[in-house]
Amino acid sequence: MQITRDFSHYVRTAGEGVQHIDLAVEGVHCAGCMAKIERGLSAIPDVTLARVNLTDRRVALEWKQGTLDPSRFIDRLAELGYKAYPYETESAEATEVAGSRFLLRCLGVAAFATLNVMMLSIPVWSGNVSDMLPEQRDFFHWLSALIALPAAAYAGQPFFRSAWRALSNKTTNMDVPISIGVCLALGMSVVETIHHAEHAYFDAAIMLLTFLLVGRFLDQNTRRRTRAVAGNLAALKAETAAKFVGPDEISQVPVAAIHPGDIVLLRPGERCAVDGTVIEGRSEIDQSLITGETLYVTAGRGTPVYAGSMNISGTLRVRVSAASEATLLAEITRLLDNALQARSRYMRLADRASRLYAPVVHATALLTVLGWVIAGASWHDAIVTGVAVLIITCPCALGLAIPTVQTVASGAMFKSGVLLNSGDAIERLAEADHIIFDKTGTLTLPDLAVTNAAEISTDIFELAGRLALSSNHAVAAAVAQAAGARSPIVGAVEEAGQGVRAVVEGVEIRLGRPSFCGAEALAGGVNLDAEASIVAFSKGTEKFILSVRQGLRPDAQAVIAALKARNIGIEILSGDREPAVRAAAHALGIAEWRAGVTPADKIARIEELKRRGARVLMVGDGMNDAPSLAAAHVSMSPISAAHLSQATADLVFLGRPLAPVVAAIDSARKALHLMRQNLWLAIGYNVLAVPIAISGVVTPLIAAAAMSGSSILVMLNSLRACSASRKIV
User: Fold this and answer.
1) Would you please indicate which residues are annotated as catalytic (active-site) residues?
2) Which CATH superfamily, name and number, covers 449-549?
3) Is the predicted pLDDT of residue 434 greater than 90, yes or no?
C-alpha cells in the first residue's frame, strides 16, 4: 500500500509565484549544522530560499510555485541526517521543552560523575603515583571507569547522536571531533587500566562532557529567552472575533473569516483580533505594544486600534482595516522572525570557518600522532598527545562566537523597541556616524490633524479623503482619517515624493504637493503657523489647501542631545515647507536642515556624504523615503510607516518615542565590539593552545578544561550584549 503525504495545509504564498513552508528540524545546534542544511536544501532546483533559524530549530523554505512537493524537503533532510516535520508552534515548543529537560538530565549525570571521578583521581594525581601499590592504583582507576563509562554513555548522547548522523551521511560537524576525543580518552583509559599503567583519563573525558553540556545549556537558554519574546507576541493573537452579520446580530468567527470593511464588536477584557478604527463606543485600551506607553489610551470614534490591544472598560464597534496575517501584530512577528534568522557578515564568516575547521582538527591530531611516532615516541604517548590535540582544538568557541551575540543583541533590541529586517544591519548600524532624519511621521508623531477642515465643503473634503486612502504618506493618512474616508478611489496612482492622482467622472483629481496640484499661488497666500504643513487638492481647475499640523515625538529633544553626545552628525531633509522644518529644527537644536527636498535630492545628499567618507543612517517613513532608505549605508523606519512589507528599511522601531534609535545604535556598537572580541578570543585561544598541545605538555584533562573554558568564556561574553543600551532620558 502506497502512503502519500500532503503538506499543502502548511504551505503559504510568500510573494508572486513563490511558496513558503516552515519545517521543524531536530538535531540542529551549531553553525556547522546550519550551513550543511542550507547547502543541501539550496541545491534542490527551484529553491529560492533555505534559511535555518537556530533559535527555534526551524528552517524556512521558499520555492517557485507549483514546481516542488514539500515532502521532498523532508526526504532531503533525512538524507542529511535530520528528522523534520511541518513547524507548528505548540508541537515545536513541546519538543524544545523535552529536549531541554533531556539536556539538563545529561548535564546532571555528567556533573555528578565528574565530581566523583575527580575525588577518586585526587589520591592518584596528588601523590607519587609510582610509590602507590599497583592494586591501589588499579582500584581507583577501575572505580573511576565504573562511574565514568555509563555516565559518558548517557551524558554524551547529544554529541554522539549528532556525530553519528553526520558520519552516516559522509560529512562532519563539530560534534565529530568531540565524540572521537571522548571515545579515544575513555578507550585508552580502559586499555591503560588493564595494563596497570600509572595514568588513566576518565576524569578528562567526563569533565569534557560536563563543560560542553554547560556551554550547550547556556546557549539553549539564551536562545530560548529570545524566542520567548516571539512566544509572547503569539500569545497576544486572538483566534476569533465577534463579527456583525446583521444590524444587531453578531457571530463568533475565526479571524481568517474576517475581511477589511467588516465590523466587529470588542467587549471589555477582550484582545482585539484585527486592525481597525473605532466607529462607535468609548473605552480605554492598552496598546503598549504599538505605542510603547503603559498608560491606557482613551478610545472613541475615529481612534485606530491594533491586533493584540486589550480593551479595558467599554464596548467598541470597530471597522476592520486588516485581519489575520495582514495586521500590524503579524508584521511585527514576521520582523522578529527576520531578526532571529538574520545572518550577519561576521556570522557567515564564522560559519565558513567552522565548516572547514572539523577536517583541520582531525588532520592536525593525526599528524601530531604520526609526528611523535616518527620522532621516536611510543604509540601510547603519541596517541595521548593526539587525543589532547583533538580535544583542545575543537571549534566550539568559534561556532558560538557570533551566533550567540546575534541572538542576544536581537533580543535586547526588541526589548528596546527595535526589530531587524536585514542580516548585516547590526554591523552597518554600528558603523553609522551621520544621521539624516525625515520630519513628517519620523521626528513628528504620525497622528496628524487637519486644522482647516471646516473651511472646505463636505463633498470636496470627502473626495480628498478617498483619494488620500491610496497614498502611503502620513499627511495623506491624516486627511483620510479626518474626512472619515472608507473606500479608496479605484485606479489611483501615487507618484513618489509628489502625491496621488486619479480620474473621477472624467475629471482628474490630485492630492499632494502644491506644485503637483498646480496650487503654488494659492499655497503662497495661505497664512499658516510654523508648526503646520500644507497639502493641496485639485479637482479639475478647482484648487484647495489643507492645513495639517503635527507635534514632535515626546522625547525627540532628548534623543537628539543623546546622539550629539555620541559624536554623530545630524541633519533634517524634509519635503515639507520651510517654516515647518525650520521650527522643528530650531526646537531640536539641529543646525543643518533643508526643506522642500524631493526623493532625488535626498539621494544626492546621501551620495555626497558617502563621498566624504560618512556612514549614513537614514531614518524616514513612507514611500517617498524608500529610495533614500535604500541608498543609505543603513536605514530605519518607525512602525507607523505604511506598507511595512514593502519597506526597504534595515531596522524598524516601535512606539511613539524616538528613543529606540539611540538604543539600537548603542546595542549595535556593543554587539559589533563583542563579535570581534569573541572572534579574537576563539582564534587567540587556538593560536596559543594548539602548539602547546602538539608539544605534548598538555594532558587530555587540561585540554578538556581549556577547550570547554574557552567556549563558556565566549558564551558569557556574548551575554553582555543584553545590557548595551544606556538610559537616554
Assistant:
1) 438
2) Calcium-transporting ATPase, cytoplasmic domain N (3.40.1110.10)
3) yes
